Amino acid sequence: MHFVDAKSILSAKNGMNLYRGCSHGCIYCDSRSKCYQMEHDFEDIAVKANAIELLEQALKRKRLKGMLSMGSMTDPYIPLEEEIGNVRKALALADQYGFGLTLITKSDRVLRDLDLLRAIQEKTKCVVQMTLTTYDEDLCRKIEPYVSVTRQRVQALKRLRDAGIPTVVWLCPILPFINDTEENIRGILTDCMEAGVYGVICFGMGLTLRDGNREYFYRQLDRLFPGMKAKYIRAYGMRYEINSPRNRELMKLFHQLCEEGGMVHDNDKIFAYLNRFEQKREYVQLSLFDSLM
């Protein structure tokens, strides 16, 4: 861990990453790619020391409320969050200034902030997005070694449902020859149905590999699945998009199960939902009344 000062915290679309780097150890992580120009070891997490100050300044200046988002590059609930607490501080600011919020995680640590998530949801909209890749717990521990296993994430989804927090699941990546099975897809989507998720995002059964993350991924394949690296190289060479040979049949199953379970499975519709700011009528009326007192 090391501290850095950031020049800004919010992107043009209100996205933020309070940390840079990750300690979850997922073998396929795209954020390791060289194109992101990370100038430190990936596990040596950069903490943006002035992030909360910058965020409050930005929210004060904004004339229109909207949806904030976090987690596109770094999971907000890495273990370091327990010590630093920047995610919780950011949630408190979103609540204070009346902004909606969505975040992406693989950790049940999100439940530590359930009080703030509910507070935001009561006023505007708060959506938790959870990544699920692997129904088999032993395989999950291999490819995502330092994060909540799938069963813990599913239990978190159910707790969020019970608390009135809408959820979205990312079904990705699916690793060819490793977890691209009907059993895996069916198991994950059954869990999603039981947890009452709003929708499931899936771009296809496969993954992407770029310079930086490709080399790391292949080293982990050598270590965890002897012979698998050679199989990938024979099948895909240096391609960016790595699609499972079972992509068509598994995507058909994906859409079928989502339809049966009442879960949105059109990516565009889900992203439109995530980006749409909603303000509860009761809160608007209360705020107007308070302003006249």
Tell me briefly what this model is.
With 293 residues, the protein is α/β, with parallel strands linked by helices.
Query: From the alpha-carbon coordinates, what is the Rg to the nearest angstrom?
Result: 20 Å
Q: Helix proportion of residues, in percent?
A: 40-55%
Q: List the uncertain runs.
A: 289-293
What's the order of the H and E elements? EEEEHEHHEHEHHEHEEHHEHHH
**What fraction of the residues are assigned to beta strands by DSSP?**
5-15%
**Alpha plus pi helix count:** 12
End-to-end span in angstroms? 47 Å
The secondary-structure class comes to alpha/beta
What is the average of the pLDDT values?
95
- List the strand order in the largest sheet: 2-5-6-7-8-9
Cα shape: globular
Structure commentary:
This protein is an alpha/beta fold and 293 residues long. 44% of the residues lie in helices and 14% in strands. It contains twelve helices and eleven strands. The chain has helices at residues 51-61, 81-84, 86-97, 114-123, 137-143, 150-162, 182-195, 213-224, 228-236, 247-261, 267-275, 281-292; strands spanning 2-4, 15-16, 19-20, 46-48, 67-70, 100-105, 126-132, 167-171, 199-201, 206-208, 241-243. The protein has a six-stranded parallel β-sheet with strand order 2-5-6-7-8-9, with helices on both faces. Helix 3 (86-97) packs parallel to helix 4. It is globular, with a radius of gyration of 20 Å. Mean pLDDT is 95; it is low at 289-293.
